[in-house]
Specification:
Blueprint lengths: L2 E6 L2 E5 L12 H7 L3 H5 L4 H8 L4 E6 L1 H11 L8 H8 L2 E3 L11 E3 L9 E8 L5 E6 L2 E2 L5 E3 L2 E6 L10 H7 L4 H10 L1 H6 L5 E6 L1 H5 L3 H9 L1 H5 L2 E2 L14 E2 L2 E9 L3 E6 L10 H6 L1 H4 L1
Parallel strand pairs: 3-10, 11-15
Antiparallel strand pairs: 1-2, 3-4, 5-6, 6-7, 7-8, 9-10, 11-12, 13-14, 14-15
């Protein structure tokens, strides 16, 4: 500020040394530089890329903060993005077609990205009831840190992690993980694998490890592998992110979630270290029973 507090008969004048530009007149690259997200913006330093992404219209951008980019920065800070197909796919996955404000989004909504490869962004909304009602908004189970920031060509949200396009469906994730072979076998024995493979909407699996099964006695093991209702309590017909379970200390049915938010093309997988043989509870008690909280 060059001159301040120039009093007039009808107000006050301050003289400044730069033009104030509202956020709604900036593009996402300008927003990134002013919102501690310039590491992501610097990946578009090539002139052709800057021109292409700056001229996009009617888009929603999920912008990772500098803190979120630290892991990626070491790998890609000197990368030639234009000629790096894998990195370009990751970057374009942060751009959704259309302008999407919170008021127009809903739980399990899917957004098309610039990649045009069928891998969508899944939106989830969760509410916590305490002294104040607090909503959590996620994209691919990554929390948004701000509300919608209007720009000249759409909307920007700051997010706490980079987004990575999922490569496999839920069953492929389960089969590829050597810690989950007993669980996959149990799904086959109970016939639940057919139910999973026939799902058409996003779903969630809390997958117990081999060690979790080994902690069961012979009678309990037989119950789990012969009674579909026990393992069905570990399958949800909606997308559930770990950010919705923070109040429980990342616990589920008496066990700890040891690997969160393994994103699949058709849902999400969490890995847990215990399996319970208790009967299936109602939806509310499955999330909020005392065994889950303490």
């Amino acid at each position: 500020m060059v001159v301040r507090d120039v009093l007039t008969t009808n107000g006050v004048i301050h003289i400044i040394d730069e033009v104030l530009v509202p956020e709604s007149a900036k593009n996402f690259l300008d927003i990134a530089k002013s919102k501690n997200a310039d590491i992501f913006a610097n990946l578009f330093r090539d002139k052709e890329l800057t021109k292409y992404f700056s001229q996009l219209k009617n888009i929603t951008v999920y912008l990772p903060t500098n803190e979120a980019m630290k892991v990626m920065d070491a790998l890609y800070k000197n990368a030639d993005v234009k000629n790096n197909e894998a990195l370009m796919e990751i970057l374009k996955y942060h751009f959704a077609k259309g302008v999407h404000s919170w008021s127009r989004m809903y739980n399990n909504m899917e957004l098309d990205t610039l990649n045009n490869d069928g891998k969508k962004l899944r939106i989830n909304e969760y509410v916590r009831f305490s002294f104040n009602t607090k909503w959590t908004h996620t994209v691919q189970c990554v929390r948004t840190l701000t509300g919608p920031i209007r720009t000249c060509n759409g909307i920007v949200y700051l997010i706490e992690k980079m987004l990575t396009p999922p490569e496999n469906d839920v069953m492929t994730i389960l089969r590829k993980d050597s810690r989950l072979t007993t669980f996959v076998n149990a799904l086959n024995k109970t016939g639940l694998i057919n139910q999973i493979q026939n799902k058409t909407e996003a779903f969630t699996i809390f997958a117990p490890t081999n060690d979790a099964f080994n902690k069961l006695n012979a009678r309990q093991r037989e119950q789990v592998e012969s009674n579909p209702s026990i393992l069905s309590a570990y399958i949800y017909d909606t997308s559930v992110c770990c950010s919705s379970l923070e109040g429980s200390g990342f616990r589920f049915r008496g066990g700890h979630i040891i690997s969160c938010d393994n994103m699949a093309t058709d849902g999400v997988v969490h890995i847990v270290d215990r399996i319970s043989v208790r009967k299936r509870h109602s939806w509310w008690h499955r999330f909020f029973s005392f065994d889950n909280i303490f």
